[in-house]
């Protein structure tokens, strides 16, 4: 039993913002993206990335289209320092990409951070300090006034040190860590202190990065906090307003999206939501959410599975099969009505038209995934998935009533196996239920051979039935092979429908024949099917298949009923 939370947990206060604008807005453009996979993502791993892995990951991020990449915390880790140096010294950072390095507000750490970036064409120094009451009291033991002096002192130091490297274009990023838990007036004071100490102005940009260091509120409260700041920050035109959502309440993506409505221009996060605790905001989901609204995110996720494997290898963490867009199961429908609707949708969807396939939020092909795994068949499936697999893998299109009949067979098999049925399983079931139904000795007919010859205007068929030890021949005359076979059987059978289809072309061409019959004494109709290189043979076998299946329900074996 969960204990009563009322006395142990508090809901953070709402923001007094009666004129809030964000609920009426839509996201119109992609934000600036910053990948913190190599910093926040990396600091949250059982085994942080090696130097080689970091470098490789960095280049993947560049190829994906990131223009801002937090490479690490060079003052805290020799690997991070070496990686930054290698990238800078070897000129491996493309001219339009901003590397970013993080530091605490401590003089020695700031010096080393700037030393790591020296010589870069452009660079972002990321300075942070926590500002919320709990951190002020427990971690830093500082008053609000002392926190402001602390910020002023360390931002000024960053300015002084970076001014000594005019060959580099410097930007300061200031993060009031724990922003979402800080009184808004204090956050504003902290950010404005940084803006002034950095002397933000024309050609001197500052990034103000507001994190949900630990996500504690509903996304609407975070959006209110962002809009409140957006309206009040000093020198706003020289400030890039950024957010850094975490996902402790599972609403990181919602927080980021609503923050964009509220005035944020930039988002920091990790691919597939890696990062401290329940992760940083997932940049893949955010970007593809935009994409499905017709807005290009400026990031290339056209090979999402390839990227997922890169990230899994680098982090040592698996991506959940139901992870939005990237999970193995997200383009798979298990339930019958979903499969049916997807099949119908795919049949009418044209490549360049607006995407309207039911149940699939985007065209899997757009992110390098194929339709292959879309339909699966299990005990929850209906006709749609079965029809899709038979058609895709064997070119077999069953008449609707036959599909209904066969789906009952599939359902039974799936229930018995308690597993998913593959296309191959489905075909085996189709073979044993229909294509080989005439070859089963037990209750049905065991076909061995036949001869067919023209007889005046009609045909005569001689069919050899088994078992081989007591083989016998039944003969029938008719207008064609089907009619003759029915007569040969001598059973009260009437043929309701017949269709044939060629399955392959050329030398190995094959015909599929499908027959629907009624057998006196049995309710409804029953289907049979057969495949042969010869159409007449396929027709004869299809009748035998249908009759054999129909008599399965009869009390006496077919041999006793058939005319000998
Ligand atoms: C929310 C985030 O993700 S922030 C990023 C967090 N990432 C990391 O910390 C990863 C790497 N960090 C480290 O390896 C280490 O913390 C180092 C090397 C930076 C510093 O190591 P140490 O000097 O041993 O300090 P330690 O790790 O114990 O950190 C606690 C100290 O840092 C201080 N501190 C914490 N945050 C800050 C900050 N933003 N600015 C200034 N000081 C800070 C604390 O007050 C505490 O100081 P105290 O020792 O005087 O009480
Ligand atoms: C932006 C920084 C300080 C951060 O990682 C956080 O607050 O989660």
UniProtKB/TrEMBL annotation:
The protein's annotated pathway: Amino-acid biosynthesis; L-leucine biosynthesis; L-leucine from 3-methyl-2-oxobutanoate: step 1/4
SMART domains: LeuA_dimer
Keywords, comma-separated and alphabetical: Acyltransferase, Amino-acid biosynthesis, Branched-chain amino acid biosynthesis, Cytoplasm, Leucine biosynthesis, Magnesium, Metal-binding, Transferase
Listed GO MF terms: 2-isopropylmalate synthase activity
Residue intervals of the Pyruvate carboxyltransferase domain: 31-305
InterPro entries according to UniProt: 2-isopropylmalate_synth_dimer, AIPM/Hcit_synth_CS, Aldolase_TIM, IPM_Synthase, LeuA-like_post-cat, LeuA_allosteric_dom_sf, LeuA_N_DRE-TIM, PYR_CT
Documented EC number(s): 2.3.3.13
Localization (cell): Cytoplasm
Record-listed Mg(2+) binding positions: 40, 244, 246, 280
Catalytic activity, as annotated: 3-methyl-2-oxobutanoate + acetyl-CoA + H2O = (2S)-2-isopropylmalate + CoA + H(+)
PROSITE patterns: AIPM_HOMOCIT_SYNTH_1, AIPM_HOMOCIT_SYNTH_2, PYR_CT
UniProt entry tagged with the keyword Metal-binding: yes
Annotated stretches, region: Regulatory domain: 437-564
Keyword Lipid biosynthesis included in the entry's annotation: no
Cofactor(s) needed for function: Mg(2+)
Listed SUPFAM superfamilies: 2-isopropylmalate synthase LeuA, allosteric (dimerisation) domain, Aldolase, post-HMGL domain-like
Family to which this protein belongs: Belongs to the alpha-IPM synthase/homocitrate synthase family. LeuA type 2 subfamily.
NCBIfam families per UniProt: PRK03739.1
Primary role: Catalyzes the condensation of the acetyl group of acetyl-CoA with 3-methyl-2-oxobutanoate (2-ketoisovalerate) to form 3-carboxy-3-hydroxy-4-methylpentanoate (2-isopropylmalate).
Quaternary structure note: Homodimer.
Protein name as it appears in the record: 2-isopropylmalate synthase
Natural source organism: Azohydromonas lata
């Amino acid at each position: 039993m969960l204990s009563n939370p009322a006395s142990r947990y508090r809901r953070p206060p709402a923001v007094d913002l009666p004129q809030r604008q964000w609920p009426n807005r839509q996201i119109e453009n992609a934000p600036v993206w910053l990948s913190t996979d190599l910093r926040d993502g990396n600091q949250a791993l059982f085994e942080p990335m090696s130097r080689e892995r970091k470098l490789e990951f960095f280049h993947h991020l560049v190829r994906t289209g990131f223009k801002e990449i937090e490479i690490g915390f060079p003052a805290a880790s020799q690997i991070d320092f070496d990686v930054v140096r290698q990238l800078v010294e070897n000129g491996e950072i493309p001219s339009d990409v901003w590397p970013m390095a993080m530091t605490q507000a401590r003089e020695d750490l700031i010096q080393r951070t700037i030393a790591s970036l020296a010589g870069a064409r452009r660079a972002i120094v990321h300075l942070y300090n926590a500002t919320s009451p709990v951190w002020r009291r427990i971690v830093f033991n500082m008053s609000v006034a002392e926190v402001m002096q602390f910020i002023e002192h360390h931002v000024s130091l960053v300015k002084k040190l970076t001014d000594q490297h005019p060959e580099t274009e410097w930007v300061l990023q200031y993060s009031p860590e724990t922003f979402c838990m800080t009184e808004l007036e204090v956050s504003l004071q902290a950010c404005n202190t940084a803006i002034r100490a950095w002397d933000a102005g024309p050609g001197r940009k500052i990034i103000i990065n507001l994190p949900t260091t630990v996500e504690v509120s509903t996304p609407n409260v975070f959006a209110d906090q962002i809009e409140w700041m957006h309206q009040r920050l000093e020198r706003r035109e020289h400030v890039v307003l950024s957010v850094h959502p975490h996902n402790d309440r599972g609403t990181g993506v919602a927080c980021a999206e609503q923050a964009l409505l509220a005035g944020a221009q930039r988002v920091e996060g990790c691919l597939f939501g890696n990062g401290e605790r329940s992760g940083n905001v997932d940049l893949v989901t955010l970007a593809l959410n935009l994409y499905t609204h017709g807005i290009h995110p400026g990031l290339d996720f056209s090979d999402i599975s390839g990227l997922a494997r890169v990230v899994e290898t680098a982090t040592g963490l698996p991506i959940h099969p139901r992870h939005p867009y990237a999970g193995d199961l997200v383009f798979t429908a298990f339930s019958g009505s979903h499969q049916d609707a997807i099949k119908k949708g795919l049949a009418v969807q044209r490549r360049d038209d607006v995407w309207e396939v039911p149940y699939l939020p985007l065209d899997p092909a757009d992110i390098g995934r194929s339709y292959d795994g879309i339909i699966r068949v299990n005990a929850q499936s209906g006709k749609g998935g079965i029809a899709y697999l038979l058609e895709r893998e064997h070119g077999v299109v069953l008449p609707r009533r036959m599909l209904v009949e066969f789906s009952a067979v599939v359902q039974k098999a799936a229930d018995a196996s308690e597993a998913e049925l593959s296309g191959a399983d489905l075909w085996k079931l189709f073979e044993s239920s229909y294509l080989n139904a005439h070859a089963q000795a037990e209750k049905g007919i065991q076909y061995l051979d036949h001869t067919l010859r023209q007889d005046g205007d009609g045909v005569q068929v001689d069919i050899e039935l088994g078992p081989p030890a007591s083989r016998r021949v039944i003969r029938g005359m008719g207008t064609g092979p089907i009619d003759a076979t029915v007569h040969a059987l001598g059973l009260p059978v009437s043929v309701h429908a017949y269709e044939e289809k060629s399955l392959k072309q050329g030398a190995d061409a094959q015909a599929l024949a499908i027959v629907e019959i009624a057998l006196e004494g049995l309710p409804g109709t029953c289907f049979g099917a057969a495949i042969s290189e010869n159409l007449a043979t396929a027709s004869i076998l299809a009748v035998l298949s249908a009759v054999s299946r129909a008599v399965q329900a009869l009390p006496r074996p077919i041999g006793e009923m058939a005319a000998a």
